């Protein structure tokens, strides 16, 4: 859905350089017939920066982070602030009780859940049209 990084750099001459960058982290679908498996690259975020929730059949991933660095000579400061939010429809065949989230060492979050084909509902249904009298 959305992801923004705001970068602010200030140097000894009090020159401020600002820029806003739109980022869409890579989402990889590793799902199989029996398991739902997504991997979302959130490099730069820490596990405490990310919240994963479900609302009905939707999975919501939100992240916020801040980073500040000062150069060794103290002449410049680098500040970065990022926000991310994505909503993903899980599907009708997901076993809601089996959903798990894991933050990996390489800065990705993995979402896994068992698939239960018995829970899958009819996707398309032709509706009869009644005529008003």
TrEMBL record:
InterPro entries: A-crystallin/Hsp20_dom, Alpha-crystallin/sHSP_animal, HSP20-like_chaperone. GO terms for molecular function: unfolded protein binding. Transmembrane segments: none annotated. It holds the Pfam family HSP20. Keywords: Stress response. GO terms for biological process: protein refolding; response to heat. The keyword Oxidoreductase does not apply. GO terms for cellular component: cytoplasm; nucleus. The keyword Magnesium does not apply. Residues 18-132 form the SHSP domain. Belongs to the small heat shock protein (HSP20) family. This is Heat shock protein Hsp-161/Hsp-1611 (Trinotate prediction). It comes from Henneguya salminicola.
């Amino acid at each position: 859905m959305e992801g923004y990084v705001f970068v602010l750099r200030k140097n000894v001459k009090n020159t401020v350089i600002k820029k806003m960058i739109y980022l869409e982290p890579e989402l990889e679908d590793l799902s199989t017939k029996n398991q739902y498996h997504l991997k979302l690259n959130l490099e730069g975020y820490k596990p405490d920066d990310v919240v994963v929730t479900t609302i009905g059949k939707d999975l919501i991933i939100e992240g916020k982070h801040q980073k500040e660095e000062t150069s060794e000579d103290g002449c410049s400061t680098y500040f970065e602030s990022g926000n991310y939010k994505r909503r993903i429809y899980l599907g009708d065949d997901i076993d809601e009780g089996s959903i798990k989230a894991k933050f990996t060492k390489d800065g990705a979050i993995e979402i896994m859940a068992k698939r239960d084909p018995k829970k899958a509902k009819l996707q398309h249904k032709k509706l009869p049209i009644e005529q008003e009298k």
